[in-house]
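A note on notation is needed here, since sequence and fold are reported together in a single record. The reader may check this reading against the record printed directly beneath this paragraph.
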Amino acid sequence: MKILFLTQVLPYPLVGGAKIRAYYMLRHLAQTHRVTLVSFVREDDRMEDVAHLAQFCAAVHTVPMVRSRIKDGLALVQSVVTGQPAAITRDRVPAMEALLARLARQTPYAVVHADQTAMAQYALYAAKQSALHGHRPNTLLDQHNAMYLLVERQAAYERGPARLIWKREARLFRRYELGLLRDFDHIFWVTPEDLEVAARLAESESNPTGGAAFERTKQTVIPICVDPDSQAAVEPVDDGPHIVHLGTMFWPPNVEGVLWFAREVLPLVLREVPEARFTVAGKGPPPAVQALAKPSSPVHGHVTIAGFVPDALPLLQRARVFIVPVRAGGGMRVKIVDGWQWGLPIVSTTIGAEGIDTRPGENILLADSPQAFAEAVVRVLTDDRLAAALRANGRRWVETHYNWKRVYPAQVDPVYARLEAR
């Protein structure tokens, strides 16, 4: 079967949850289908990464994505005019539409697979272009997040005019995603929580007095998976009480979570473990995060802002605790699955672990208040037996429950078989 697979970020190297999801989904589909990958690329994407993807794709096409403040401003204007979220109008690139029109004219694809909400508009465009040439492919959306819920949650932590902008964006995403529920032939969700949010939204909007039938037959929950077979657990290196956060630092929920931990939780940890250190690793830390390591910071001397780390292994080996202090967001935090794969003891908020099958106290510790989160971190820092148990149990859990070679054949293949039969 010929599949057109659309991604908003180049799905390699495996940095961040979006890339990990797309990469292993792509790898799985390419085993039994002819997959053409079309992806946006940025300045730091490398030709060797494109070449890696071309090893198992029938073809790889890329379109440059250029971001600027001027473009962001124009996106807001377009959002006002069209009523679509600014995050959607911002990613509208004529070169992508031209490429998809050409591919739709040349090849009768059986399925157009959109990875993330940002690519939904392009999947529907490609399907429309195919229909003009006498062929209507099936459309599938891999909804990494219920975007309106993610944006709505983030709005609660914003202040001033920014909060109003986030709230408006949440309302627009609510309407936009309702349309996607109708327009796509099938939708993948990464968590049952996001699926239920969408179901309640669709039913309340369809019939405010009592709800309407939600097409659950076209919804499937499939978690983001990794490849523990090719990634051994890291060998711990004793470097003292070292706390690590790893994640893209231009993503607002990560920024808010790191600031919350450093300002409200870390001082409580230092009362019990004065020599504790906190390292923040990830691309694009904003000034507020960088300020945590400056002399004027109350936690100066205990915080390191590492930025992007090309090789995270030395950092992971020294991690006594791997934290996920996320208090906003949606979907699934792949950093928890990664942490299990690396064999690290994890402390997370409840929202941070949302959508993931966990065993609190066995393979992870969960806490939400500053005091409770600090106590959990201190327990792992000071209890060798607990740290060892969390490491071992987490690794076994990911091998069984989040291995793409086990999960995707069982859950993805039946959906594609139904689409092919149509």
